[in-house]
UniProtKB/TrEMBL annotation:
<feature type="binding site">
    <location>
        <position position="249"/>
    </location>
    <ligand>
        <name>substrate</name>
    </ligand>
</feature>
<dbReference type="InterPro" id="IPR050929">
    <property type="entry name" value="PFKA"/>
</dbReference>
<comment type="function">
    <text>Catalyzes the phosphorylation of D-fructose 6-phosphate, the first committing step of glycolysis. Uses inorganic phosphate (PPi) as phosphoryl donor instead of ATP like common ATP-dependent phosphofructokinases (ATP-PFKs), which renders the reaction reversible, and can thus function both in glycolysis and gluconeogenesis. Consistently, PPi-PFK can replace the enzymes of both the forward (ATP-PFK) and reverse (fructose-bisphosphatase (FBPase)) reactions.</text>
</comment>
<comment type="similarity">
    <text>Belongs to the phosphofructokinase type A (PFKA) family. PPi-dependent PFK group II subfamily. Clade 'B2' sub-subfamily.</text>
</comment>
<dbReference type="InterPro" id="IPR000023">
    <property type="entry name" value="Phosphofructokinase_dom"/>
</dbReference>
<keyword id="KW-0460">Magnesium</keyword>
<feature type="binding site">
    <location>
        <begin position="141"/>
        <end position="143"/>
    </location>
    <ligand>
        <name>substrate</name>
    </ligand>
</feature>
<dbReference type="GO" id="GO:0047334">
    <property type="term" value="F:diphosphate-fructose-6-phosphate 1-phosphotransferase activity"/>
</dbReference>
<feature type="binding site">
    <location>
        <begin position="193"/>
        <end position="195"/>
    </location>
    <ligand>
        <name>substrate</name>
    </ligand>
</feature>
<dbReference type="Pfam" id="PF00365">
    <property type="entry name" value="PFK"/>
</dbReference>
<comment type="pathway">
    <text>Carbohydrate degradation; glycolysis; D-glyceraldehyde 3-phosphate and glycerone phosphate from D-glucose: step 3/4.</text>
</comment>
<dbReference type="InterPro" id="IPR022953">
    <property type="entry name" value="ATP_PFK"/>
</dbReference>
<keyword id="KW-0479">Metal-binding</keyword>
<feature type="active site" description="Proton acceptor">
    <location>
        <position position="143"/>
    </location>
</feature>
<feature type="binding site">
    <location>
        <position position="13"/>
    </location>
    <ligand>
        <name>diphosphate</name>
    </ligand>
</feature>
<dbReference type="GO" id="GO:0005737">
    <property type="term" value="C:cytoplasm"/>
</dbReference>
<feature type="domain" description="Phosphofructokinase">
    <location>
        <begin position="5"/>
        <end position="327"/>
    </location>
</feature>
Length: 430
């Protein structure tokens, strides 16, 4: 009897290391042909499964799969923000149809909270309908909000270490600019990703663990008012003559008219007015004690795809958790997510890989710990620095180049032959 086939897909915002988890899954399955059959990828996540658009990864040369290590974002197999919601019975039935039609026995879904919810629903669906399918989740999110507040289910998500490294390096460079240009531009406002979860703006502190910069960090969770922010900046200008303000994109400045994605998450970067603009305009309306004006910068999606800033630690862990997900699927069966746990029994930084039931992480947000906020609520504590510092690594990643340009993986877009009628996902029907 032939080995069951595999479908791997990914969902949500991409990261620098998401393709390395994909590589871990694919290469591990390829190494075990007696246990895993043809490996397919859902083109653009669960949407590709609904539309029966399954990329045959065996058509991609091994060297291209290997290049996934340093290929950022989701250009290889695509991602989506399509969510399987209650009441979409036709979508659920279609997933079963497609997986059955292609003799799929293993389904791996790489993503954050909502993606793990989709993996959980597929796992339940398989169980309820008697489908011989093992659904396994693989963690991914730059927000680091997947898991529990005690960090016992998942210490950190692949993707966070790289965006934290990006933020740390970015603020180091901003400080050089601000220090040299402060007579004209005494205040630099930097908007960080993270919606209402503060792990990304908090990583700015990694740029200055000894607290030598005039740096203020405003997490959405800190609940600091715009007026208080202004007072804090004025005080810093009196003392230092300059100030760097890192503000979460979820910092409360009132209604920005922000749009939402199909997961229901606010897309601050898609708003006509940004938090950084509002904060900068407010600072410039004050009677500043030094000459010059405030300026702002918004790194945008560059935070999650700048492979030159990726953490080598993050890349390695993303790969290993992908490999471990295959072992979990093979050895433990349906309904788990592979996890990364910090091993505190040894000196220094090390991790172990384990599993957790999908129901414990599906569609659940982990908030930034209150204990990691400074007493004045415009900074983070040394305990946070101790947690996050190992994740950004100490070396620069080596990215293959051709003619001075990064060489990224090129995944064959060869699709498996269709076996079912065409289908339009329910959300897209008019």
């Amino acid at each position: 009897m032939p080995a069951p086939n595999v479908v791997v897909a990914q969902s949500g915002g991409p990261t620098c290391v998401i393709n390395n988890s994909l590589r871990g899954i694919v290469e591990t399955c390829f190494r075990l042909p007696g246990q895993f059959g043809t490996v397919f990828a859902g083109r653009f996540g669960i949407e590709g499964i609904l539309k029966e658009e399954l990329l045959d990864l065996s058509a991609t040369p091994a060297e291209e799969i290997a290049l996934l290590r340093t290929s950022p974002a989701a250009g290889g197999i695509g991602t989506c923000r399509y969510k399987l919601k209650p009441g979409q019975d036709e979508d659920f039935a279609r997933v079963v149809e497609v997986l059955k039609a292609h003799d799929v026995g293993y389904f791996f879904y790489i993503g954050g909270n909502d993606s793990q919810d989709t993996a959980h629903k597929v796992a339940q669906l398989a169980h309820d309908r008697g489908l011989d399918l093992v659904a396994t989740g693989v963690p991914k999110t730059i927000d680091n909000d997947l898991g529990d507040p005690e960090f016992t289910l998942l210490d950190h998500s692949p993707g966070y270490g790289s965006v934290a490294r990006y933020m740390a390096q970015y603020i180091r460079q901003v400080n050089e600019e601000n220090a040299g240009s402060s007579p004209a531009d005494p205040v630099m406002v930097i908007q960080a990703m993270g919606r209402k979860i503060g792990f990304i703006p908090a990583a700015a502190r990694l740029a200055d663990p000894n607290r030598e910069m005039p740096l203020q960090i405003y997490l959405a969770e800190a609940k600091v008012s715009l007026e208080q922010l202004g007072k804090n900046v004025v005080e810093a200008l009196r003392e230092f003559g300059r100030c760097i303000v890192v503000v979460s994109e979820g910092f409360d400045v009132g209604d920005l008219g922000a749009s939402k994605d199909t997961f229901g998450h606010v897309q601050f970067s898609a708003s006509q007015t940004t938090v950084a603009q509002v904060v900068t305009n407010y600072i410039n309306s004050l009677d500043l004690p030094v000459p010059g004006k405030a300026r702002f910068q918004i790194p945008g999606t560059d935070q999650r795809n700048a492979i030159a800033y990726a953490s080598v630690v993050d890349l390695d862990e993303a790969y290993r958790v992908g490999c471990h997900a295959v072992a979990v699927a093979r050895d433990d069966g349906n309904g788990y997510m592979a996890t990364i746990l910090r091993d505190r029994t040894r000196g220094g930084y090390s991790v172990t890989y384990d599993k957790v039931p999908l129901e414990q992480v599906a569609a659940k947000d982990r908030s930034f710990p209150e204990r990691w906020l400074s007493s004045d609520r415009i900074d983070v504590t040394d305990e946070f620095v101790e947690y996050a510092r190992p994740l950004i690594g100490s070396d620069w990643v080596s990215v293959p180049q051709v003619d001075g340009l990064a060489r990224f993986a090129r995944i064959s877009q060869t699709l498996a032959p269709r076996r079912l009628p065409a289908y339009v996902p329910q959300t897209y029907r008019r």
